[in-house]
Amino acid sequence: VFDCLRGRVDAAKGTITMAGVQANIEMLKNAPRILIIACGTSWHAGLLAEYIFEELCRTPVEVEYASEFRYRNPIVNKGDVIIAISQSGETADTLVAIEKAKEQGALIFGIVNVVGSSIARVSQAGAYTHAGPEIGVASTKAFTAQLAVLTIIALQLGYEKGTLDNKRFLHLLNELQDIPEKIPAALNQAEHVKQLAYKYKDARDFLYLGRGYNFPIALEGALKLKEISYIHAEGYPAAEMKHGPIALVDETLPVVFIATKDSYHEKIISNIQEIKARKGKVIAVITEGDDVITQMADDVIVVPQADELVAPMLSVIPMQLLAYYIGVAKGLDVDKPRNLAKSVTV
Ligand code: F1P
């Protein structure tokens, strides 16, 4: 399994470390429970990992902000595996949360980008993302690499646990392998996204909605907009809209739907109708060839077709571009947003 994964993934750009996954697969296999702790963008990767792990591996997973975990009295059992995710490897909240879980007998699997960083050193096992240095403060390519590593872990673990059959394993492996070839097509939307940025840059608030694997991407889209463009944005599961956020919708509110084709497609179409009925402006990230949503939305951003489990690696790209271009359109320093540090060490 490892050779197969290594061969495929390394051939597809060589940015992913497989050794950490292979060496520690037994530890993950024996885990009665996996706890994922992280902050910010890394936490969003963790949330998506919860969905993927529970689907493919059937291991119970909990995801928590390290900034909460470190201060409360969480239940950690001996043998629980903590997956700690961090781009910088220096985030103080995550480091302290790791130490706390370690004291209670948990095993630490670190997923970090910076080699030799503090979180890498306190982890007993792990995998580097090797995404290269993030030039700006806000995490972007590290997020994609985190998702790739987490998906690889889930594939290998699911295969070895027997919860993922051979056919689906190979299908998902192929889908993952194809992602690097599809990323340029998503990036090619940049000019179009730039035009949308100028159209919507003066909005006071944004709402981001998605279901299933696309829900964490809605959260990440909203976070990027807050971080880089200083616009208030909320990410929500689209199905939660009726439980409160729908009251916000009027003709001034842009609503970004992460609406690529997946098992929730009919339901997300209904959600778009609900927003349109209240005169909200719909910007939808869609799979190429989706004429239904193209007819309904005010604007669409097209990404290539991919299995719903790996599609977030594509749909996050226009979200990052939108935040970037709105920041540029507003004359902001997108690489060094105010009040933010590259690694939050306090
Ligand atoms: C976590 C994080 C980033 C965010 C910003 C502040 O960092 O919240 O996601 O973009 O840079 O820190 P890390 O633990 O992933 O390095």
TrEMBL record:
Keyword Repeat applies: yes
Keyword Aminoacyl-tRNA synthetase: no
Catalytic center residues: K342 (for fru-6p isomerization activity)
Domain SIS: 24-163, 196-337
Enzyme class: transferase
Cleavable signal peptide: none
EC number: 2.6.1.16
Molecular functions per Gene Ontology: transaminase activity
Subcellular localization: Cytoplasm
Lineage: superkingdom: Bacteria
Catalysed transformations (reactions): D-fructose 6-phosphate + L-glutamine = D-glucosamine 6-phosphate + L-glutamate
Sorted UniProt keywords: Aminotransferase, Cytoplasm, Glutamine amidotransferase, Repeat, Transferase
Subunit-level organization: Homodimer.
Biological function: Catalyzes the first step in hexosamine metabolism, converting fructose-6P into glucosamine-6P using glutamine as a nitrogen source.
Name of the protein in its database record: Glutamine--fructose-6-phosphate aminotransferase [isomerizing]
Organism from which the protein derives: Niastella koreensis
